[in-house]
Design a protein that fits this description.
Elements lengths: L1 E7 L3 H12 L4 E5 L16 E3 L4 H5 L6 H12 L12 H15 L2 H7 L28 E3 L3 H19 L2 E5 L1 E9 L2 E10 L14 E14 L8 H6 L13 E2 L8 H8 L4 E2 L4 E9 L9 E6 L4 E4 L15 H10 L4 E7 H7 E3 L6 H4 L3 H5 L8 H9 L3 E4 L2 H10 L8 H13 L9 H9 L3 H6 L15 E13 L2 E2 L6 E3 L5 E7 L21 H17 L2
Parallel strand pairs: 1-2, 1-8, 2-5, 8-20, 9-17
Antiparallel strand pairs: 3-4, 6-7, 7-8, 10-18, 11-12, 11-17, 12-15, 13-14, 14-17, 16-17, 19-20
Helix pairs in contact: 1-6, 1-18, 3-4
Length: 552
Amino acid sequence: MKYDAIIVGAGLAGLVAATEIAEANKHVLVLDQEPEASIGGQAWWSFGGLFLVNSPEQRRMGIKDTKELAWQDWLGTAGFDRLESSQGEDFWGHKWAEAYVDFAAGEKRSWLHSLGIRFFPVVGWAERGGSLADGHGNSVPRFHIVWGTGPAILAPFLHKFNTFRKQGIIKYRPRHRVDQILLQGNKATGVAGTILATSNAARGEPSNRDVQSEFEFYAEHILVTSGGIGANMELIKKNWPKWLGEPPGQMIAGVPAHVDGRMIGIAEAAGARVVNPDRMWHYTEGIRNHTPVWDNHGIRILPGPSSIWLDATGKRFGSPNFPGFDTLASLKAIQDTGYSHSWFILSKAMIEREFALSGSEQNPDLTNKKISHVLKRILPGAPDPVQAFIEKGEDFVSAHSLSALVHKMNSMGEGPWLDEAFIHKQIAARDRELDNRFSKDQQLMAIRQARTYRGDKWVRVEKPHRLLDPKNGPLFAVKLHLVSRKTLGGLQTDLSARVIGADGKPLDGLFAAGEVAGFGGGGVHGYRALEGTFLGGCLFSGRVAGRSIANQ
């Protein structure tokens, strides 16, 4: 059978595109190397944050936002610098960025609302920046948490997907690994690959790669939505940005092993142009999962701004390297030390109020839509998932004095040796700045400014207090690792999601969406992300690709 479209990858972008094509009564074949338990890909694991502009949730929280302000922030964050011509690596990414900000300020929320997606009322402030108005970061809170987190984003698309499956309009074939894009002349006409053995692996667990047989399928249009390279440490090191120095000696994995980037090379072999491969997004606040699902499983802390952040030698980071302000600058600062870890030191009140963990499974109250459980977050005590890490996590230690805490930090091994007197001197200097409501300590200034936003004051940012005062004990230290996550470059695409070839022209019949395409254009984010834009980029680029194919 010849299909109207073949989609390679059953993540969020692939599901969105498949349902858009099916709604035009066109027949779609969806292939994925993983078992059906992993349908939806990384979106299922996500916290469910989405970037929206001038939303009702923002207005109710007293936030004034505009498309112009959002575009200013996007440009200051992306730092597009490969725009020399229509052949420039940023040419299409810049155009996708403008289209995406229009979408986020326009129909994005109403479209999602029509699908039954709802939002938590308090808007989060991610990537706060820490420089000038036209530099990196969100000028205002824009991180909208979906009520039900990642699974709730997937739910309406999975419902439509399964409805079309029952009608025979969509065919879904898990355990089908694509190894080649078939060409007839310069046109993509099909895919070939291997059928892998049945696997009972649960979501996120590694599945076997035992080959059973081979396949070939043909279609008018081929859409690649296979994700990025986040679990492929070899590709991460190969493409590591030169300006960040040598690749880190150690990283933990923020995504399952199947996020391997295979299809980028396969599409390139078929003539696709890969751009910005040296742009990627890795977090600096990673901790080892006490109950890992995949090998080397890392979880990201979503920190409030108050923790004292020390490099591996015990030296406090300066602006803009405060928790939650500038991920890429913090990564550079850590890399410059020659080590791949750093430390948080914080009080009991800080860890209870300001620590959140990324991921649907780490936020069962939000994921399961339990209002009574969510309300417990404002009560004393750490949220249950955070408490579990305090008790079981190998990266957490606590003590009733700084001396005992530093001793425990040194006992965790790896080095370098931390000087308790040096750390005490820095924290004592910070504590003295609390005698007045004004200060020259830029982190304290940022904390006080954050608390002028009532969302932060209510649920996110602890009132500044002295860390060395025993009444604020015990003290906690958390060893932080670099955790791999997102690919910001990829297959270059035009505004119809058509893949661009080496000659700068669209390849006939070949499309791409989601992370494999840098979330649009081969790099909609440029060098940095404003957060809430990865899921949103999959939604937007998947919708564009699906509608483009449907209208062919």
